[in-house]
Automatic annotation (TrEMBL):
Cofactor (UniProt): pyridoxal 5'-phosphate
Name of the protein described by the UniProt record: alanine transaminase
Record InterPro entries: Ala_Aminotransferase (IPR051926), Aminotransferase_I/II_large (IPR004839), PyrdxlP-dep_Trfase (IPR015424), PyrdxlP-dep_Trfase_major (IPR015421), PyrdxlP-dep_Trfase_small (IPR015422)
Enzyme Commission number: 2.6.1.2
Top-tier EC class: transferase
SUPFAM superfamilies per the UniProt record, alphabetical: PLP-dependent transferases
Superkingdom of source: Bacteria
Length: 404
């Protein structure tokens, strides 16, 4: 058979959360091993089920949701999204500014595909949620990473952002609350970022999919509420707070200087119509999700399941010699640092594979999140407390003798 070669558009594209390590875990499962998975932010399989009322809405509407809908999405869903943001102090938007996609993932790809010419740059955090980097590169642009500072509660380093702006920079990505660090940004920090976007005419891409998953009284401030003169594109969806990741429903809302973005908006409308529309039955969950009882609030109470698991995770990680972690203020992840000297670290993927082989525990290496050094890992704290305890005690045991 002649070789069938992948497109060279993929040469600079990487998405290692489901990469070689994930494949190795599946191979071990096929051999009959049970793997403790602390690697993917998928709430439902860990018993964090979607609110019953949104499941019911989908079922009830299924018989009448057989056709395509408007490319941007169902009126009722988009109206609910607009009203939700109005209640958060974001005005001047209407349903035409909202696009519903098959998850935020599809919309991230669309937002960058519609913007970037060859070698146009987007500022993306390091560490990041790696789809942003992959999507920028796939769109022909260039992901330029700005540093987030672990010693400053993982806040973005504003001087690094300023130093990396060039005439080719088109936009800046903020992930708040952050995956993988769990940081939640202050108003002061957000205002500084908005000011940088204003000064350099950058689009602010605000990925706020964890906006309702907050601990210790942390407050999330929507970036779009802080200006009406720059273009802000806000992303959110049903995957995390509403635990319905498999529904594949996300949205993106444009706000601020829409006049200046006329051409970009035409591009987005074209891309949106090219994929016809998002999954229709599941869009019926949006109105009730946003307007209904916010059951996520129970999970993030001090005694709530997510908070307890976060605390267990942080406590056990910090108890391992050579490991330290900042307490996440939001989202579902911890991003611990490993003492590179102590473990003689050179390759974090190797470390994750060694751990998988030895203890049947699956984590993700920090470099998969575009972190430059092989000295961090991401731990998902969705498993039950007992499973987290088992996994992290075994991780500690594994590290006792580990050296690369
Ligand atoms: N943005 C961030 C920061 C995420 O962590 C994720 C998923 O983990 C996504 C976007 C993608 O979400 P969706 O399920 O809506 O495609």
């Amino acid at each position: 058979m002649y070789p069938i070669i992948k497109s060279n558009k993929l040469d600079s594209v990487c998405y290692d959360i489901r990469g070689p390590v994930h494949k190795e875990a599946r191979r071990l499962e096929d051999e009959g091993h049970r793997i403790l998975k602390l690697n993917i932010g998928n709430p439902a399989p860990f018993g964090f089920e979607a609110p019953e009322e949104i499941v019911r809405d989908v079922i009830l509407n299924l018989p009448t949701a057989q056709g395509y809908c408007e490319s941007k999405g169902l009126f009722s869903a988009r109206k609910a999204i607009v009203q939700h943001y109005q209640s958060q102090g974001i005005f001047g938007v209407d349903i035409e500014d909202v696009y519903i996609g098959n998850g935020v993932s599809e919309l991230i790809m669309m937002a960058l595909q519609g913007l970037l010419n060859t070698d146009d740059e987007v500022l993306i955090p390091s560490p990041d949620y790696p789809l942003w980097t992959a999507a920028a590169n796939l769109a022909g642009g260039k992901a330029v990473h700005y540093h987030c500072d672990e010693e400053a509660d993982w806040f973005p380093d504003l001087d690094d952002i300023r130093a990396k702006i060039t005439p080719r920079t088109r936009g800046l990505v903020l992930i708040n609350p952050n995956n993988p660090t769990g940081a939640v940004y202050s108003r002061e920090l957000l205002l500084e970022v908005v000011e940088i976007c204003r000064q350099h005419s950058l689009i602010l891409f605000a990925d706020e999919i964890y906006d309702k998953i907050l601990y210790d009284g942390a407050v999330h401030i929507p970036a779009a509420s802080l200006s009406d003169d720059i273009l802000t594109v806000t992303f959110n969806g049903l995957s995390k707070a509403y635990r319905a990741a498999g529904f594949r429903v996300g949205w993106m809302m444009l706000s601020g200087n829409l006049k200046a973005a006329k051409s970009y908006i035409e591009g987005l409308e074209m891309l949106s119509s090219m994929r016809l529309c998002a999954n229709v039955p599941n869009q019926h969950a949006v109105q009730t999700a946003l307007g209904g009882y916010q059951s996520i609030n129970e999970l993030i109470l001090p005694s709530g399941r997510l908070t307890v698991q976060r605390d267990t995770c942080v406590e056990l990680l910090n108890a391992i010699p050579g490991v330290s972690v900042k307490k996440p203020k939001g989202a579902l992840y911890a991003f611990p640092k490993l003492d590179a000297k102590k473990f003689n670290l050179r390759d974090d993927e190797r470390l994750v594979l060694d751990l998988l082989k030895d203890k049947k525990i699956l984590l993700v290496q920090g470099t998969a999140f575009n972190w430059p050094a092989p000295d961090h890992l991401r731990v998902v704290f969705l498993p039950h407390k007992e499973d987290l305890q088992k996994a992290l005690l075994a991780f500690g045991e594994f590290l006792e003798t580990y050296s690369q």
